[in-house]
Amino acid sequence: MAEAKWYVVHTYSGYENKVKANIEKTIENNKHLAEQILEVRVPLQDVVELKNGARRTVQKKMFPGYVLLNMEMNDDTWYVVRNTRGVTGFVGPGSKPVPLTEAEMKPLGIKTENVSIDFVEGDSIAVVAGVWKDTVGVVQKLDYGKQTATINVELFGRETPVEISFAEVRKL
User: Fold this and answer.
1) Cα–Cα distance between 71 and 36 in angstroms, integer?
2) Could you tell me if 12 and 89 lie in one domain?
3) How confident is the model at residue 30 (pLDDT cuts 50, 70, 90)?
4) What is the pLDDT of residue 109?
5) Final residue belonging to a domain, choices 49, 69, 103
6) Do residues 79 and 156 both lie within one domain?
7) Distance (Å, whole) CA 150 – CA 144
8) CATH code at 56?
């Protein structure tokens, strides 16, 4: 099995989120692709806008017209991504996609090192960072490729699955 690397896909301007959704839908429908295409990202950055005298922080696309993919490059994944509606092609010379280097990924906040964990499915964990900070949940699923744990949290009186990064949780 090949190693997953980050690739850049060029899209029609304004289609970045649609391309991301289409690729994720394809992965959902073809389970064998879930192990090969690990993550799809549209990099965003916080920008402060001054509108009518009021400061507002909004998220803007870092690279309009581009989507990042963490995937294993093979004929199947290349074909699926290349033939997704809105995709014009991979970034690279000719038709050969070139993965991003460590130096190119660092400013994007993409970490490549693996985080070691001391919990398994069924363990109770506490979220120590991020949006769900101070939340406690039971691990339902671990995804080592994405470095995430899916936990159930109570939201509006219902159990809701939430995906949390390994780096944001600790075992109780």
Assistant:
1) 5
2) yes
3) confident
4) 67
5) 103
6) no
7) 11
8) 3.30.70.940
Is the pTM for the entire model greater than 0.85?
Answer: no
83 vs 104: CA distance, rounded Å: 26
Residue 140 is part of which domain span?
124-171
Q: How many CA atoms does the CB half-sphere of 112 hold within 13 Å? A: 16
If asked whether residues 131 and 72 sit together in one domain, one would say no
The answer on 141 and 85 residing in a single domain is no
- For 68-91, b where at least 16 C-beta lie within 10 A, e where not — what string? bbbbbbeeebbebbeebebbeebe
pLDDT in tens, 110-166: 665 556 788 888 888 888 877 788 888 888 888 776 778 888 888 788 888 888 888
Domain membership flag for residue 109? no
Q: Where are the beta strands (DSSP E) in the chain?
A: 5-11, 37-41, 44-51, 54-61, 66-71, 87-90, 124-127, 136-143, 148-155, 158-165, 169-171
pLDDT of res. 102: 79
Contact 84, 26 (CB under 8 A): yes
15 contacts 83 by C-beta, under 8 angstroms? no
If asked whether residues 98 and 136 sit together in one domain, one would say no
Say how far apart CA 106 and CA 28 lie, in whole Å. 29
Count up the domains in the chain and report the number.
Answer: 2
Residue type, position 152, single letter = N
